[in-house]
Amino acid sequence: MRLESINVGRAETISLGNKSHRTGICKYPVEGPVSVGINGIAGDAVLDTKHHGGPDQAVYAYSADDYDWWAAETGREYVPGMFGENLTIRDLPSDMNVGDRLLIGEVVLEATAPRIPCDTLATRMQDRGFGMLFRQAARPGIYFRVLSGGEVLTGDAATMVESADHDVSILDLFHYKYRLTHTPDDLQRLLEAPIAERMRVEIEKKLEALA
């Protein structure tokens, strides 16, 4: 795997129809060494802190290969940072397991959750139906927590270290979000993995309601 682009967001207002969003989803490639800490990429704007950012979703990565897939499917150009990812990585698997790690130089990242599409992404793409397209594509990108910080540089190699402790995948969590019914066993299985805290709280509430 190779780090193709490091992308940093700035606060911008984007609009679609009569709806506007003040957001940090618009991220742009930067040059030179970039610091990665427990709360993510240095200088990156995160405005919707209810749904994004924080230690368990500190870094969002997207596969350059998945962008190639989108381009082939839609005939549209996709550039690094377009989906709001911090890291665009060549050969990044679409579906890692929660707990799998990426090593980029001295930086260690641990997979925690998928990206769930929202109105902000649809506005960014100027397509009200993009959330459904994103759901159907099942190529959500991956959120990571930072286990060890440091500096990264475009062109750095990335190495995946698979976790032997869990078998909950990023796509398991992605598909969970769209299921209308759940069983206690299914929910408990998801909770056994080191998933992002926002998703953990949500699943625990569903499990409590079933009980």
Low-confidence stretches: none
Structural class: alpha+beta
Query: What oligomerization state is this entry in?
Result: single chain
Sum up the overall morphology in one term. Answer: globular
Q: Can you name the CATH architecture?
A: Beta Barrel
For this structure, the CATH topology is: M1 Pyruvate Kinase, Domain 3
Report the mean per-residue pLDDT as an integer: 94
- Sheet with the most strands? 8 strands, mixed
Please report the first level of CATH classification, the CATH class: Mainly Beta
Strand content: 25-35%
Alpha-carbon Rg, integer: 17 Å
| Proportion of residues in helical segments | 25-40%
Compact summary:
This protein is α+β, with helices and mostly antiparallel strands and 211 residues long.
